Amino acid sequence: MPQTVAFSRNADNVFFHILTQCNLSCSHCYINPAQHGSQRLSLDRIVAWLQVCIRRSPGANLIFLGGEPTLHPELSQAVKAASEMGYGSITIDTNGYLFHNILDRITPHQVNYISFSLDGADAATNDAIRGAGSFERCIQGIHEAKAKGFAASLIYTVSAQNIRGLTAMPDLLANLKIDHFFIQVIGLRGKSAKIGSEASASICVSRDQWISVIPTVAREAARRGIRTAYPKVYLKPDENFECAGKVANNYFIFPNGRVYRCPLCEDYSLHSLVFDNNEIKATAPINEQDLFALDIAEGCVMNKLVQPQNIDYFKNGSPKFKIACCLLKEHVEPIVAG
Ligand code: SF4
Ligand code: SF4
User: Fold this and answer.
1) Tens digits of residue pLDDT in 189-208
2) Ligand 2 centroid, distance to 246 Cα (angstroms)
């Protein structure tokens, strides 16, 4: 059975975008250089910001992101520095191209996971979203990582374009010896928000599709021994709504110094924290914190503002269900036979 894992006050997460440059141009990319900057952070700055974060959140989980973080020539030094600072776990998110021979410059003791992104179980599905050749290169990268002793996780971002392909993933994950599978839901931000409201709506997955496909695929992956997580998205009337912005500590850091607590705010100048040189400071209102404080019948305030098409209403105007915080996950542990 899936288990909803409540936000933990003891498991802070630092999502650190060390650059926004990327070799791919995925159709759903959430990176927005106008809001996030286009600079590459120097190693000195990365280390200084990592120190600030670990002082603020001892034992936090750290995820290196981009753009494509392996395009940063000093990523290996950043990993080494972080591994000596006391982060609870370290993950590198990659599209699989693994630039600068990153796997030869770090060790499996320094990182907990190399996390690969794939949006289809075959090249036709994946490459339609992520670009020609990206499926093959990602599979090759996973083989290289596993051969060198790294644990590998995989993220699949579900949209109307690729939800059918999801059912073929459990077999592929098992063949690739993936350790942890994350199913994501497409969010209308970055490029997905810019294509116009009609086209944006057409890539979203309906509630019926989500409920009929996602939990089954997660169970199938678990049956093959793979820990799986997926966003809860829809809350039943008796389930409690919580905003991670109020009850958890997540930091989404971008190269221009902006620090968001909510990923759905990232297309807007709503960040509640900012790095000013090497100090982290609160921004002036109005910012995302003011939105977290609002209590609405639909659940997540930012969802209602940026992607209201996923909410259904009764004739009397009340919502049929609440939308959960996008950071709330269902976890399915591996199913052990016997
Ligand atoms: S690999 Fe990631 S950062 Fe690069 S274009 Fe695709 S979604 Fe964006
Ligand atoms: S996604 Fe919604 S509920 Fe979650 S932190 Fe953002 S505003 Fe709060």
Assistant:
1) 677 666 556 666 677 888 99
2) 9
What the chain holds in terms of domains, given with CATH numbers, is 3-332 (3.20.20.70)
Residue 137 and residue 117: Cα distance in Å, rounded?
11
Q: Report in angstroms the alpha-carbon separations of 179 from 127, 133, 192.
A: 23, 24, 29
Instruction: Locate the DSSP E strands across 186-306.
Output: 227-231, 234-235, 250-253, 258-260, 273-276, 279-282
Model pLDDT for residues 302-334, shown as the tens digit of each residue: 999 988 888 999 999 999 999 999 999 999 999
Instruction: Tell me how far the alpha carbon of residue 114 lies from the centroid of ligand 1, in angstroms.
Output: 15
Closest ligand to residue 99's CA: 1
Structural tokens at position 126: 């994946």
R_g over Cα of the chain: 19
Question: DSSP character for 316?
Answer: T
Ligand 2: list residues with CB < 6 Å.
243-245, 262, 264, 291-292, 300-303, 325-327
The string of DSSP letters for 4-28 reads EE---TT--EEEEE-----S---TT
Tell me, using a 6 A CB cutoff, whether residue 24 lines ligand 1.
yes
pTM given for the model: 0.95
